[in-house]
TrEMBL record:
InterPro entries recorded: GATase_2_dom, Ntn_hydrolases_N
Any GO molecular function: transferase activity
Matching PROSITE patterns: GATASE_TYPE_2
Domain of life: Bacteria
Domain Glutamine amidotransferase type-2: 2-299
Keywords annotated in UniProt: Glutamine amidotransferase, Transferase
Designated name of the protein: N-methylglutamate synthase subunit A
Keyword Transferase: yes
PANTHER family with a match to the protein in the record: AMIDOPHOSPHORIBOSYLTRANSFERASE
Amino acid sequence: MCGIVGLYLKNDKFENSLGELFEPMLISMTDRGPDSAGFAIYGDEVGEGWVKLTLRHPDEDYRWEELSDNLSASLGCEIKWMQNANVVVLKINTNESSARRALAELDADVLILSAGSSIEILKEVGLPENIASKFNLSGMKGSHIIGHTRMATESAVTMEGSHPFSTGSDLCLVHNGSLSNHNRLRDTLKREGITFETENDSEVAAGYLTWRLNQGDSLKVALENALKDLDGFFTFTIGTKDGFAVMRDPIACKPAVLAETDDYVAMASEYQALVSLPGIENAKVWEPEPATFYVWERK
């Protein structure tokens, strides 16, 4: 059992308070997932020719400034960086593949949690309230955010095994449920060049969507294919740079609720996660249908 929550802003007047609105949503899912928690937030987008990476290292006292200087010298480009607890966000004036290659050469122990132009992923083992406090979630700004609280069932309680999972540029996914064909699908995706950091079945779902998008699918077409190719029980919430999507499997045994107003779209495993949102009493509220996906994207 896990808890998933998401908030997509239709009105940019709330962007400065996105984290403040989202924090009580995440914490309300503690009973569904006390082992670990995390979130992916979209905002503070870098311009063309830049890439934004969220990085972590096993050493709590890692010298990020030194890494940034060495990386800048190696790539011959400008780098901006910001530390948030034990995680660092780098903005690098180069492409993603060059940045990944240079990082691997400088320190193979640096873990890339996310890459793209907008996304930042922050996650940790522990209670959601503690993780929200650690990363100052309530003070964060952005356009949309998805989060997850985990009660581990099929793999160990580790930071790497916590959600969200990102396996492509500005793409992430949180999942409540379990996939039955993830081992076979993982092997197929590896042959297609998709890499994985864990044995978690949810990471396979994220990798599958990355593969479909790399093949030229739109998000909607990728989700249509996912309904055909993914076996098991699942409610997914998916984030991309421009969008936010929710999808349930054909049986729909994992709970989910959606709420929409003129200002936002919100989703959660339980309605209690939505009660603190402004105007929720006047929102359109419904349960997502089985074998159906819902997509909101910026034009």
